[in-house]
Amino acid sequence: MLEMLSNAPRDYSWGSASLIPALQGREPTGEPEAEVWFGDHPGSPATVPDGRTLTRVRADSGLPPLPYLLKILAASASLSIQAHPSAAQARAGFAREESAGIPRNAGERTYRDDNHKPEIIVALSDPFRALVGLRPLERTRALLAELGDRPGIAALAAALAGEDESAALRAVIEDALSGRSAAIVADVSAALTDAGSAEFAQEVDVLRAIARDFPGDPGLVVALLMNLVVLRPGQAAFAPAGVLHAYQDGLGVELMAASDNVLRGGLTPKHIDVPELMRVVDTRPGPAPLVEPVGEGGLEVFDVGVPDFRLIRVTLDGRERRVALSGPTIVLATDGEVLVSAASAEVRLRAGTAAYAADESAVDLAGIGTVYLAQPGAPA
């Protein structure tokens, strides 16, 4: 089976009005377009040409839901700061909230399913900016020094002065999200209005935008502690369980385990469960988890070691390329025009369009362009 997929963009407020239309070669609608989902997730399942959702297609064939969800993501403002649980934490949290009788669609519900949600983002735009993981404190102290000597900034620097960096970060994040750091938020916001820094110019730019878009939000303190990652086209970052992250701006291909479990850490009007976030979040500082693809000859694999998914990128120069498939696969073109052929059918993909392949051992790709193939990862 090889069939085209289609879906309407999701209009989240942080979305870009221009990036997805430009990718797909159409006129913008004037409204934000944040994500296009290519998968069978019930939140926004893609459809095949006969009008059925991919959810129904797999159910009609007696197949379970896909273990992954592939998206095009386009941001013009910060997403909420968030972390995702491990598989064990998700199972325990889901069972706990089920036992408590909390409706799955309730605003205060945290665990909407019993799955983890690791995710990878690969940049399509130049740049794609994201906050991922907690920066080593030596660098954060240097950034604070650039912001001046306001009392709130001095208080934050003092709170981060302990030898146990993870414990210090944990305490600062918990205090901020519990509403005990309003003076720090105010002083950081004020300092950012006229701050200048050659060393941290992009960090200041991102934080200034956050302070403007989320006035008074305690997530500003959390964002200040995080690594800023500036990805160039084809570069990737990974957010494993517990790692705080918040995409800032740009266009990318995102692949994740099929889950709705999100623990928020600021920059959102939605419910923030501070105690549960603090149970899940990894506060060890370090460099952002970047992912280098492995491969050559125009075929590269982004494999982050989870059973739910892996991502393959194929760059085509006009010569035909056969790619073996290891399970149900979604093929997404991101530039050019590519003919995708299988034993059962063939489809032609332009940038921003996708197809679903099932019960196929391989696909042949021809044309000039780039495609990403999402499929299950190796079993644990």
Rounded mean pLDDT is: 96
How many β-strands, per DSSP?
A: 19
SSE-based structural type: alpha+beta
Q: Could you state the order of secondary-structure elements as H and E? A: EHEHEEHEEHHHHHHEEEEHEEEEEEEEE
Rg over CA atoms: 21 Å
Using the coordinates above, name the CATH class of the largest domain: Mainly Beta
CATH architectural category of the largest domain: Sandwich
Q: Span from first to last CA?
A: 27 Å
What's the number of helices? 10
The biggest sheet amounts to: 9 strands, antiparallel
The CATH homologous superfamily of the largest domain is termed Jelly Rolls
Helix content: 25-40%
The percent range for strand residues is 25-35%
Unreliable segments of 5+ consecutive residues: none
Count of structural domains: 3
Q: At the third CATH level, what is the topology name of the largest domain?
A: Jelly Rolls
Task: Assign an overall shape.
Answer: globular
